[in-house]
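Listing S7. Sequence submitted for prediction.
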Amino acid sequence: MGVCNDRVVIVTGAGGGLGAAHARVFAREGASVVVNDINEAAAQAVVDEIIAAGGKAVVNTSDITNYDDSLHAVKQAIDHFGGLHVVVNNAGINRDRMFASMTEAEWDAIMAVHLKGHFCISSHAVHYWRGLAKEGTAVDARIINTTSGAGLQGSIGQSNYAAAKAGIAALTLNQAAELGRYGITANAIAPAARTGMTTAVEAMATRMAKPEDDSFDYWDPENVSSLIVWLGSAESSHVTGRVMESEGGKISIADGWRSTVGVDKGAKWEPAEIAEAVKQLLDKEVPAQKVYGS
């Protein structure tokens, strides 16, 4: 018996890396998993592994950046497994470049896969869940998004990726506020783990390498999956609108933007007066975490 028995889950970008880890752990915890990836062979390998271990999974190759095509993932979950409870938006790519050198194509590719990709399947799933709720059927559904420390505090050389991931964090807050009435929670995870994206740079690959002994594998993607799977379970119904960080054995909540007490003149500020007001604000502020790479 697992924490996700009888739950049906879609995991995007599940042909490798974090997505594959999420799919495996969901299956081990009793969920039926739709393994979505545009690389059919990679997705099939994950499905074969899950089935060989006694789990339930099917391949889906819907393009998450195409609204109409992404509907097929939701339909497949319902048709094959009889319903849908969880959407894990995990798929992602990198197109790293310093902002001064970034091309429009590099910007658009990141926005399509990350930001639009988080919209498409979730939109179709919400239509399904809202329909059930309006019919009087109890809904206990989850949207789990993937943001990044880059989106929470910025990252040198990744302005496109950081902007998309920041958008995902804000999207999560809106989803939680709007969808709770239908029995849907929305949370986001900022993961740190060993994947093809994070180990593309040799220094990172060396730092995140699997230990040669039996000691704790700090960067194992399944460390993140445990939190993802719990958030997908019925046990997490009281948690929504949170952006959580997961690295190694550490779980934390990202404390978002907050307004300070402020400086209030009670009347219109003249331009010449602003400098002193800003000085007061800066003197009292709690500095943000540094941008990665700065």
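Caption to Listing S7: primary sequence and predicted structure tokens for the chain studied. The first strand starts at residue 8 and ends at 11. Residues 32 and 56 are 5 Å apart (CA to CA).
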